[in-house]
Design a protein that fits this description.
Elements (H helix, E strand, L loop, with lengths): L1 H4 L3 H17 L6 H9 L8 H10 L6 H4 L2 H4 L5 H13 L3 H13 L1 H11 L8
Helix pairs in contact: 2-3, 4-7, 7-8, 7-9, 8-9
Length: 128
């Protein structure tokens, strides 16, 4: 299902909504790590990449840091919502790899990074 949704914007939105429902109401039946992993498969779809990154951060699914960080360059050039989502995920993620990705982005595009972090409402960790 997630593979097909990665190809279609409408399917991806419906799939993400179903995964959100599963996260909230089916946690006793479906392991949440499986739900988050399925959602991570939607990161490749520009229609839901930002929303998916936000959900993964909310769900503390840090295993996707290597998939979220490249969204900054791949989709974030033209989409400030993707930049905000990537900045939020990397700022919230406690892993050293997230800190490295955040620092690299902040060094390459300090103004865009600062604006994206400010839009998240979270404190910047790039300077840590």
């Amino acid at each position: 299902m997630a593979r097909r949704a990665a190809e279609s914007g409408d399917d991806a939105r419906h799939t993400l909504a179903a995964l959100r429902f599963a996260w909230e109401y089916l946690a006793d039946d479906i392991p949440q790590d499986e739900i988050a992993a399925a959602a991570a498969g939607l990161l490749a779809n520009p229609a839901v990449a930002a929303d998916t990154a936000v959900d993964l951060a909310r769900w503390r699914h840090w295993e996707s840091v290597a998939d979220v960080a490249p969204l900054w360059d791949r989709l974030g050039r033209d989409d400030p919502l993707v930049r905000r989502a990537v900045a939020g995920y990397l700022t919230a993620c406690p892993l050293a790899s997230a800190k490295r990705h955040a620092a690299a982005i902040a060094a390459a595009e300090p103004d865009r990074w600062a604006a994206a972090v400010a839009a998240t409402g979270l404190p910047s960790r790039a300077a840590d």
